[in-house]
Amino acid sequence: MSNLVVKRIRQGNNSTLSEIYIDNKFICYGLEDAIREVKIKGETAIPAGKYRLALNTYGAMNARYKRKFPELHLGMVEIKEVPNYSYVYIHIGNNIGDTAGCLLVGESWELIEGDYELRRSRKAYLTLYQKLIRLMVKESVLIEISNLVKN
To answer: Which residue of 11, 92, 93, 110 lies most exposed, with the fewest beta carbons within 10 A?
Structure first.
């Protein structure tokens, strides 16, 4: 079994920056909303813990990504069984306005007016997605999210 590891390393005013690894190899950066004790819909980071990844092959986002990446897309990578959350995906985006409670990915980051933003998100997504798909067709893959920062 392989693990996707998300290590949260920095906290902005309303954003959380992380490093993402597969089998101890750094792949890209991640961005989520702020870590909060009480969930605010669409504005709260995924609770730390271990979750199963699965491919979601229905819905509007899946259809958009299928059109965007017709040769590659087999479904949205969904983080399953997150308490009080639904349809939590790993996807493209640059700032907390793009997250809606999901995990965004990028090759680099900037701190702008107190919040983190990702750069080259599409490129990072394609790299991560292809690695995850290769693993997910062979075995179960878990995502482990840990807070290395204090909120």
So the answer is: 110
